[in-house]
Amino acid sequence: MKDAFGKRRHKQLEKKVILYTQETCPPCFAEKEWLKANDIPFEERDIRKNKAHMQEVIDLGASATPVTVIETTESKEIVMGFQEDELSRLLKK
């Protein structure tokens, strides 16, 4: 895909990553560090600071954090827990 200037865009930029977390969650911290180390932009949503975010996690069928939602124009993938191999597969396609 090309941007408005005709330059080819990296496929990863077409993906939106939403990470549901809470402060007292060691796997959440580990996943945030992993995403940063791999230069993957993400939006963090703390479920303890925002009741709407808590409800979104419940609606996704999750009972623990982290929960990662990876959206593209064609699909929406949900990863429960910090699953490095699965995240690598989904984000580095």
Task: Using the alpha-carbon principal axes, give the shape.
Answer: globular
The mean pLDDT is 89
How many strand elements?
4
Gyration radius, rounded: 14 Å
Uncertain regions spanning at least 5 consecutive residues: none
| CATH fold descriptor | Glutaredoxin
Describe the 3D structure:
The structure is a single chain. A hairpin with a 4-residue loop joins β3 and β4. The chain is globular. The longest helix has 12 residues. The two termini are 14 Å apart. The model has no long low-confidence stretch (mean pLDDT 89). It has a single domain, classed as Glutaredoxin (3-Layer(aba) Sandwich). The chain is built from 3 helices and 4 strands. It has 93 residues and is of the alpha+beta class. Strands 2-1-3-4 form a 4-stranded mixed sheet, with helices on both faces.
Secondary-structure topology with pairs:
Blueprint: E1 16-21, H1 26-37, E2 43-46, H2 51-59, E3 67-71, E4 76-80, H3 84-91
Parallel strand pairs: 1-2
Antiparallel strand pairs: 1-3, 3-4
Domain Glutaredoxin: 17-70
Protein name: NrdH-redoxin
InterPro entries: Glutaredoxin, Grx-like_ET, Thioredoxin-like_sf
